[in-house]
Amino acid sequence: MNFDFSDDQKQLRDQARKFLAEKCPPKAVRVVLDGKAPYDKELWKGLAEMGFLGVAIPEEFGGAGAGHLELCVIAEEMGRANAPVPFSSTVYLAAEALLIAGSDAQKKKWLPAIAAGEAIGTLALFEGKGNPSPKNVKITAANGVLNGVKKPVADGAIADFAVVAARTGSSGRENDISLFLVDLKAGGVEVKSLTNLDPTRGQAEISFRECKAEPLGAAGEGWSILTQMLDRAAVLCAFEQVGGADRALEMGRDYALDRIAFGRQIGSFQAVKHMLADMYVSATLARSNSYYSAWALSTNAAELPEAAAAARISATQAFQHCAKNNIQVHGGMGFTWEFDCHMYYRRANAMALGLGSLSYWEDQLIERMRKKNAA
Amino acid sequence: MNFDDTPQEAAFRETARKWIEANAPKELHAELSKSSLGRIRLANRDIVDVGKAWQKKKFEGNWACLHWPKEYGGRGATPIEKVIWQQEEGVYGKLTQPFQIGEGMCGPTVMAFGSEDAKRRYLPKLASGEEIWCQLFSEPSAGSDVAGLRTRAEKKGDNWVVNGQKIWTSGAHYSDYGLLIARTDPNVPKHKGLTMFFLDMKSPGVEVRPIKQANGMQEFNEVYFTDVVIPDSQRLGAVGEGWSVSLTTLMNERMSIGARLATGVPEMFEFCSSLMLEDGLAIDDPAVRSKLASWAAKSSGLKYTSYRTISALSKGERPGPENSIGKLVSGMMLQDIATCAMDLQGAAGVLTGNDEETVQGQFQQMLLSSPSMRIAGGTDEILRNIIAERVLGLPGDIRVDKDVPYNKIPTKGR
Ligand SMILES: Cc1cc2nc3c(=O)[nH]c(=O)nc-3n(C[C@H](O)[C@H](O)[C@H](O)COP(=O)(O)OP(=O)(O)OC[C@H]3O[C@@H](n4cnc5c(N)ncnc54)[C@H](O)[C@@H]3O)c2cc1C
Ligand SMILES: Cc1cc2nc3c(=O)[nH]c(=O)nc-3n(C[C@H](O)[C@H](O)[C@H](O)COP(=O)(O)OP(=O)(O)OC[C@H]3O[C@@H](n4cnc5c(N)ncnc54)[C@H](O)[C@@H]3O)c2cc1C
User: Fold this and answer.
1) For the domain that residue B197 is a member of, what is the CATH number?
2) CB spacing of A262 vs B148 below 8 angstroms
3) Which positions of B are annotated as active-site residues?
4) Which helix (H) or strand (E) holds A8?
5) Whole-structure pTM over 0.90, yes or no?
6) Which of A34, A101, B250, B321 could staple B390 via S-S, CB 3.0–4.6 A?
């Protein structure tokens, strides 16, 4: 067993960390946070130049042709830097959807553009409240024409194209759902920005009116493709969450060393020490679960569904836990806009919902474990 | 033991209810019901203005600060009558937010240590909401360790001259007066060299700078003092006795917080009662039920703990450190409830605008504001220390600074 990333992958991590430290300091995140830009375009361009956007895209489609382990390494750094770019929508969801189900022509059209930083993609799945479920997909597609409203769509206002889940049948089964690829710059689409918890990552409402859409994957296969997409994205997001959790822990630790109260470093109080130790524990469990899920993803193992759900759960919890207690360690300072603590708190709580909420994934994990144990 | 109103209490309740029925700003009821913490959701209206109007009306009807003596603007009501009033006032109590520091902390301190003249001059106007007070205790390097504060007050003739900086002062930007604790002698151990004052926030040399909060609002401030003159007649308590005066303030803070503490439970209950999940109402879901039940039990535990305190108060006992549990429990609970409500909303839980799916972002705002409940007025950790040390009698942490002259304490950046 060698349950670790390779030296090359670690080198890639160092490279990504260095790049992001330089190009994506908190100051840059704040430009987007304060609403002065919808996302960091310069950074996006830089990520493309570094080859990070296409790291898991095969060379024939303009990518670096590395693999998912390399993408995991970069995802962690994106989370650590709280990067204000549509990375997860484009790379974990849209690109993966194309890789799983895209036709050669679709891949040729979009994947090189993604890798080059010229196309932003997203997944339009949700329709109001609720979690991923075929029942919650109400918008319809008939003869390649979409009608209905999707909300919230992450990065919807800046996306060039979307993978849209729509209803093509009414049997009440999973195969009622099909996926479509929609060029959002063509007609029949209306996009409205929505205010959300984490302004560094936009959310939008997208209305389709008699909108032309091409199928992605076979008709009726939508839900099965989507399930694979969500599992992959769960792994990749888990790495972002682990990166965010680690950064929040680090900020808390540094502040505890620096801040003096009662003539002592506050880190010398056991209450603070234990708070930080507990953060470390949840971040570590999340990291280990994420590593396991990365292995499952990179080898396309049968364990992936279960591993992805476990990683999703523990990474979500770890990031939420570390982000909230990082504020607590900072006292009043932690509750200011000026300190970065709230940016991680916002991101942690927004990410907890993006692919479906924690309770949804808890449910998935147990279902998947039960299935496995029964087999 | 008896939780029923006595005949007098029932009569009092009836009077209060009728008065509220006739006078409350009913048009705000729905909006107020939806705001559990943080943003008081009033479309296009300032909470301070609306609050002042309600406070004034209450004052004229003799319902403001009703547990205060009549001569200082109150009604001379018993602690139990005050609770009855708060129960009846219900959601309109949220309008008292700008006055809570004055009513709960500054007023009682003036009452205990002010001159007769000061009491008659300041307390009725505080009660009527005409003048708002703020609490100038915390400093950049003195929050939990408030006795470590640096702001200096030096005696010049009949006056004191103040220089220094406070921080996190809630409402300083709309306050008329402030309760200020300052260092008058740096040569003695830190708790011994402090003195309490109050001052006009419009005094020359006072500068208020708002601080933007993590939840996007601007409710607290930095307050700078440059050669601010305070007459000696505005000193509260003896010179060097500021620490024990401040304990009166903080003791009253505990008392005032109890009954009005937001827990998030009523909002969550209502939300779960109407939210349709895939398999039915959220409140019928066993996992939701289990959480809701433990929150409901915590919240009733808090309520009845505060009733026990009030019973003790009405027998003339002082509220003790055990009341620290109120904020400790509800701060964390608010955060958990907000997280759970958003979880139930699924992906749409991220939306904070005027979205139907998230009940206009009610729980999102709670999530963003709740960290402050675990910090303001004593952090969770300090409250646990208080319970451990003052209630359970455990020894305190080893103190490196307690008996050392203030100006000899090892510090950083002080
Ligand atoms: C089932 C079992 C098996 C064991 N097996 C072995 C063994 O094989 N070999 C061996 O040598 N020992 C063994 N021990 C002993 C064990 O290591 C000690 O019990 C343990 O270190 C606690 O020491 P103590 O009992 O003196 O408790 P104390 O040290 O007196 O602790 C009492 C309480 O105070 C807390 N406490 C103490 N110091 C601190 C501190 N600095 N900060 C915060 N809290 C503190 C503790 O957490 C505990 O809650 C075993 C104990 C148990 C229960
Ligand atoms: C929304 C808000 C409103 C406020 N309003 C006012 C106001 O109107 N007037 C006013 O005077 N102040 C106000 N405050 C200030 C508040 O009282 C302080 O922020 C609080 O007491 C904590 O102090 P600090 O921020 O300096 O944190 P620190 O004291 O630096 O605490 C940092 C961390 O160290 C921990 N810690 C510190 N000492 C110990 C210890 N001995 N043992 C264990 N852990 C410890 C804390 O729990 C915390 O986790 C407000 C604060 C907030 C957030």
Assistant:
1) 2.40.110.10
2) yes
3) 253
4) helix A7-23
5) yes
6) B321
